[in-house]
Amino acid sequence: MLATALTVIAIVTQDQSALRAAPKDSAGQQAVLWQGDSLEIRGEKGDFLQVYDHRRERGGYIKATQVRVLSLKPEGAPELLSVVRFLKEAPGSEALGISYAAAYLRAAPAAAIDGEVFEALGTMAERLARRATAGRTGKSGEMLAAHLEVVANYGVTLTSFERDGQVQLCYNGDAQRRVLALPATAIQKALAALALTKHECVAPNLNPVERFALDNWRAEILERVDLAQLPAVLKNRLHLRKAGVWASLAYQRARRPELGAVVVQEAASRAIDELAAINKTELMESDAAAYSDAAIRVGASRWAAEPGLPSASTKVPVKLAVHTTPGQPGETCVHLVDAKHDLKNPLLTRCTYGIVWPASAATNPQGDVLTLAVQPLDTWREMWVFRKDAQGWHVDAVPPALDAPNLGYVEFAGWVPGNAQLLAAREAKVDGRYKLSFETLKLSSLETDRQADKPNNLSTFYRWQDALWKGKTVSLR
Fold first, then answer.
1. Average model confidence (pLDDT) for the chain?
2. What is the CA radius of gyration of the chain?
3. What is the reported pTM?
């Protein structure tokens, strides 16, 4: 059989297939081929096909049972698409599925191509990226590396960057962008939007300008999805993604004072509303981690939805208060003041490159402790505690967790009578797990005295929790 490369090709279906120098099993091995490799057929001899591998620029013979001969004529396109649909849901066969998708795109008339094949191609590319991120060793690692080389030959581009000490691989999303541009079902467009806006695929080395532009683009992509035609489970996933994106936008907008407070509040309110829109009865167990992730992101930025405090010239504090002024470029200075110490002669001044939320300031009844929310990252919010002791005033930062800043928030939740403890709610992702705790902290050291996973399980917390905190926090979702 002799066929031209324009109408017929051979796709390798078995990993580690041998390309031999002659049509016999004992012949020398020219190369090792992997599923998804595309070969030009130049002839046949016995049980072997004579082929040419354009990727390796090498010819040879391969057993006919190790390949599938495909017609690239338009009438063969429906069969190719059927195989793509099957392989889309077959983990481990991504390279083969992508090769069939590429064959379909070559065979099908342009007018017949819609978003379906690109949605399938994107799904397989994403799954392959997840497998590569998880990592493999030994033979499985060799196979995974080979599959990555195969799909790269079809134009599938994976980007990589380091996150939390691990190499993260992500598909660049070209197929999903085509889904949004072509005729496609509402579900296909929703899945494409979710793939394009994943938080874990936002490169951590983006500068503020690039990150702001990316978050605006992610929000725009999600807004283009029509929720009315989607099943409840998919609606939930879009609400979760929107909540995280708008929470990040609230932080990014707060870093740009020229935009004004209104747009910051709008973004934060939108994030809170999207989280509140979740239908918990339709929340799948597999989405539990995404729900916690979205809640932490919203929790970190929730103070952006609150109006700021009056300026220093409009009100003299009875006890303690904070006022902010610009410091070095990008820096905010926090001044602790009271009735006897104004902005020019503060009790204490501390500057930070994080976002300070003055509306979060809470003073204890005795007037010698003040807590303040400070957000150094879009997904990380700390609690500053100003305290007075025999040496004078000082401030300490209480972090959401003791590991590297990643995903978490900690917030003031109430004062315990006796001026020895304060209440705090803490939620963070620690060692890959999401942890929510309600705690009593010792004012003397800010160490955790007692903690529980629910307020009702800690009598002190349940009794003295602050009403304003209870009404605004996302930790009680």
1. 93
2. 29
3. 0.91
